[in-house]
């Protein structure tokens, strides 16, 4: 599904991602771990096109995408939830999801301002699609509440709902569990398991190794911008290089 070959990106002469090669198979859940500053978020931004690579190739579903802008890659079927993403304040949960959908259907400002019949039909379709996404992440009962009043765990679920509305084949989640505890963490884990059971391919950045081991088919470890281990979670966790770079402190 995804093939990354020799991708590098530096900032001010310092590599954030250095000569990274990585493939992700259809239906796989791939965990990305590594210390702070290892280049995990940068790698995600290179995959989605929010950052340009200095070198290397990225192919997605057989298309060379490394020169495409983010919206073109999104249209091919990748969707990202950024690290520490925020919900829109002053909007309900459903409106938060609908905002993303407006961009996709082209039910734009002009038809809204003119109150065209097409606009009203599109609004109904969008509301229905938003409701079904909220249902999928267990937020149906919260649809009419102000989004910024949701507990943090449900704000994460809301971001997932927004990402799912794009009907991605590949979902990139950047530390979705950060700040979540106990029951909230557990609910997120179950959600990821459900998405995986539905056949979605997932790249998951996570610093809690136990948590990601439970969810991932495979772990990739980044350190100083480079892949230092890649394989089954049990093997990777026992790798001396990994222990030294990451788990040992
Ligand atoms: P991680 O997500 O693994 O914590 P990041 O990808 O955010 O790491 O950062 C990797 C390195 O690249 C860090 O040293 C960080 O300071 C640097 N970096 C990331 N983004 C930028 C940027 N936009 N400008 C300058 N340096 C950056
Ligand atoms: Mg990060």
Automatic annotation (TrEMBL):
Record's keyword annotation contains 4Fe-4S: no
* PROSITE patterns with a match to the protein in the record: ABC_TRANSPORTER_2
ABC transporter domain: which residues?
2-249
Which GO terms fall under molecular function for this chain's record?
ATP binding; ATP hydrolysis activity
Q: Which UniProt keywords apply?
A: ATP-binding, Nucleotide-binding, Transport
Top-level taxonomy: Bacteria, Bacillati, Actinomycetota, Actinomycetes, Streptosporangiales
One Gene Ontology cellular component term attached to this UniProt record is: plasma membrane
Report the SMART domains cross-referenced here: AAA
Identify the SUPFAM superfamilies for this entry.
P-loop containing nucleoside triphosphate hydrolases
For this entry, the protein name equals Amino acid/amide ABC transporter ATP-binding protein 1 (HAAT family)
Write down a Pfam family by its short name: ABC_tran
The answer to whether keyword Nucleotide-binding applies is: yes
